[in-house]
Amino acid sequence: MNKIVAKEHFSEKVVKLVVEAPLIARARKAGHFVIVRVGEKGERIPLTIAEADTQAGTITLVVQAVGKSSAKLCALNPGDYITDVVGPLGKATHIEHFGTVVCCGGGVGCAPLLPIVEAMKAAGNRVITVLAARTKELIILEEQMRKYSDEVIVMTDDGSYGHKGLVTQGVEEVIKREKVDLCVTIGPAVMMKFVALLTEKYHIPTVASLNTIMVDGTGMCGACRITVGGKTRFVCIDGPEFDAHQVDFDEMLMRLSSYKDVE
Amino acid sequence: MNKEELAAQRAEQWREELRKSKKAKERTDIPRVKMKELDPAYRVTNREEVNCGLTPEQAVLEATRCLDCVEPLCMTGCPVGINIPKFIKNIERGDFREAARTLKETSALPAVCGRVCPQERQCESKCFYLQKLKKEPIAIGYLERFAADYEQASGEVALPDMKPDNGIKIAVVGSGPCGLSFAGDMAKLGYRVTVFEALHEIGGVLKYGIPEFRLPNRIVDVEIDSLRRMGVEFMTDCIVGKTLSYDDLHEMGFKGIMVASGAGLPRFMNIPGENLNGVMSSNEYLTRVNLMDAANPESDTPVYKGHRVAVIGGGNTAMDSVRTARRLGADRAMIVYRRSEAEMPARQEEVHHAKQEGVEFLTLHNPIEYIGDERGRVRQMKLQKMELGEPDASGRRSPVPIPGAIETIDVDEVIVSVGVSPNPLVPNAIEGLEVTPKGTIVVNADTLQSALPDIYAGGDIVRGGATVILAMGDGRRAAAAMHEALQKQQRSA
Q: What sequence ranges are listed for the domain FAD/NAD(P)-binding (chain B) (predicted)?
């Protein structure tokens, strides 16, 4: 049982939860995720860790209410308990001094991007962050991103904030302007697919952090399998980050809709 | 237990009298007991336990068959060394509690073993009846289950004799059969045992893998509760190697670590269409249904309820999956296996029960491709027909494709049950562990000690994929070896 100590609404459906989890807070690194379960009949769902405070013994999760389980989690309030939080899982992000790194996040994907932006900056990189969302109120964590980024570009589909356009337009603008050594992308699968197509064109190494369906999250069930470079890989153990140019995003999109009819 | 002890127990007055109370002929004339089973048509509509257990009268009569041999061959077939004649003769004289206590001397989970052990290949295969009289062996497994169930139902589950607390902390990684049996033995010896479990439930494969109709969760929970009462502590949602490191365990004062983290990544066959929706591993399918209770409308976890379900493989897990599919409403539930039925690794009882429940057996068939619809859901499978050729490395005749013999079958769900690789979490996380190319931890064959002196390992993380009872046997051996090593350390300190 893990207590929720703070909650903030980023938008109607996007919530930030600060959760007591001292062991996970201490062990986690950028890129790691946790498995969360709400209630005794609850489903196990993976969520990437956005921030951690080792002193307070807390981790921060940003959750978008999309299905039954995420809605249940979003409905919890400070003082409530999450039935199970287990982690940190997955491989940590490979951080080193690459040079110039473009970090692009879409929607709630910006939350797990934050620790990577922070770590990339700390490793001495020039970090350009591209934040994208449908509309202004869905742009999250902009202030924190500015703290660790040399530059932040905001893109909205409807032009209500920042530049009007898709994330790929923001990224391409940077690529055309200066030499980019690495791109990191986290967001909806379809967005990552198009970022990957774009950076492949410019031969820029790109890492995508994938969020697939999981049951146990510890390398047992195989529900999270995807095809990378023609080989089956498991997101929970081999990932969650992969070479975006090798990921079969179409298959991943298809697999994400696996339980649409059943749920 | 050594021969002298066994002989001394056999020479006890009550055993002598019991042996003399009936002539051998009277005993051997009794036919082997038949256990009541639920009617197949009824049981596929629910998940009630299929085997109903023995009545006390049945158990006593079956126990009477046992000749209480001078050299009990049955014991040589038991991986945990249960004193089989002693517990059976206690049943014969009507002391069912003492029978249960006898089981507990060596087995932390008798009610589990009585249900899931392949007795026909272990104790019962060595029985004098089978070996010398060419008759059906004593139903040792049924009797074991009877004694354990009797004690559980009485509500007064006895604890084994415990040595006084020695203050030494021991960590166990994983709460499956290996970890639990190790924890039980170490607690008996006076150690302070903490079991770390990655999932939210205790029991490992006994909970997520083996279905309710074969091993009810409440049976497992009573055994776990006994361990709690023996002082074993359990910590769920904690992954050693992730949440806590090897160094953390040292800082917390653990003097010995038993890695029993079990099986991990499911194997797939790497054939076209295997990542289609509706194709999944048996681990995923069974975990959804057993651990997450996904067939229950109140559960948040979804599961497919296919109408034409193919399960690929011929092991116990394949049988568990296909029988689960029948219970979830499959009209056509099929086992697809590339060899013939004679080579199937599953227990005979499971195959028999599956057939009774209307499962089709497509033996000598091997899937070569899955075909999906426009939405990526599996709709058909292509099967290559096989014939048996020369024996392979496993000694079984190997399946050879018949050229051109390919058929296509409609399916809407496929469960791949062709084995698992060891769980990679611990081997990846602890430096200095010696690991095979297959990912199993290398241990000393006798002591189960790894390359790191304070780490022992057993069960599927060492064997790659075995049975509950072999995992439990590993737990017992590792406990004995670790105890000896720790005592030696203390003496030299």
A: 169-475
